[in-house]
Amino acid sequence: MDSESYLTTTGTSPDKDIPRTSSAVQQTLHLIQSDDPNLKIKAAGEIRRLTKTSQRYRRQFSAAVKPLVDMLSYDSFESNEAALLALLNLAVKDETNKTSIVEAGALEPIISFLQSENSNLQEHATVSLLTLSASSVNKPIISASGAIPLLVKVLGHGSPQAKVDAVMALYNLSTHPGNLSLILQAEPIPSIVNLLKTCKKSSKTAEKCSALIESFINYDEGRTALTSEEGGVLAVVEVLESGSLQSRENAVGALLTMCQSDRCKYREPILREGVIPGLLELTVQGTPKSQSKAQTLLRLLRDSPYPRSDLQPDTIENIVCNIMSQIEGEDQSGKAKKMLSEMVQVSMEQSLRHLQQRALVCTPADLPITSCTSEVPSK
After folding, report:
1. Inter-residue contact 35 to 25 (CB < 8 Å)
2. CB 223 within 8 Å of CB 261
3. Neighbour-count burial of 368, counting CB atoms closer than 10 A to its CB (0-12 exposed, 13-18 middle, 19+ buried)
4. Is the pLDDT assigned to residue 2 strictly greater than 50?
5. Which pLDDT tens digit goes with each residue over 51-71?
6. Virtual CA dihedral for 158, 160, 165, 171, nearest 10 degrees?
7. Which of 87, 118, 81 is nearest to 100 (CA)?
8. Does residue 126 contact residue 169 with C-beta atoms inside 8 Å?
9. Given phi > 0 = left and psi -120 to 50 = alpha, else beta, which region is 178?
């Protein structure tokens, strides 16, 4: 789930104690600062409702941040939940509120909720950290607060939704210099691999998992952890085969970094997981970066990473034939050629369909001969 689009789905029913007049904002702000816990909970519910889809209300209710943060310290699940959900909606797509929530002292209680036995409270806390960690200002503060090991724990043992939100939060935090090594110290790779095995390979979750793995592979302990985890390399290969364009780029980048770091050590573990078909497909269907990385990795995976002679040109076909013969014997070179031929055929068919679609959309009568617009007309 994207850190900027998460909004809670359950709402608060209208209540006669919550004003519905033009001065509702001011009166709700007054109620949230009252001494009556029940009125505060109802006011928090109203703030949550109004800020669910309105950026204007998020600005108008910024003054509610401090009293809502105070409610997080109450010994009441209802107060904690109401305040968390209101703060979550206040933070979505609002950088000022994100930083204000942290400055008001929300991190300590939110982090304590990560260890709650109440799964709902743990989920709310995890997604709150996901949203707050989207702020570049908050990233170092959150990591310094001790949240990273607890997020890794949630990633391993939380509910399915909490696991997804935890890996998203960890990804957000990993983009700040210095945080990556802190995350790696918490040993997240086994849990990330398990999540990668079970999630849809084309999902955002797989994209963030593969991005984290690619980052971890730059460290020797990251490479060791991935290869030591049962099915770790295979999970990356599966993303390379059927992930989104970005996930596949992350996956081939991770495998390439492994092979470049120590070809003798990692060549066989990568080959053993059947990576060749996915790499071949990437050479014709991936992003420009994926294509380049796939070709480089194919060269590293053959018996010698260097061209042998002018009689054996350094072509993808020769490289693949060499790899296949090393794996399964000389008779497999024909299989490699067939595999490559199929990939080329797929590429040609896709190009033909693309040209046909353009011909249907762009006709000389409708558009200038020199261009084909991709803009959507105003409605």
Report:
1. no
2. yes
3. exposed
4. no
5. 999 999 999 999 999 999 999
6. 90
7. 87
8. yes
9. left
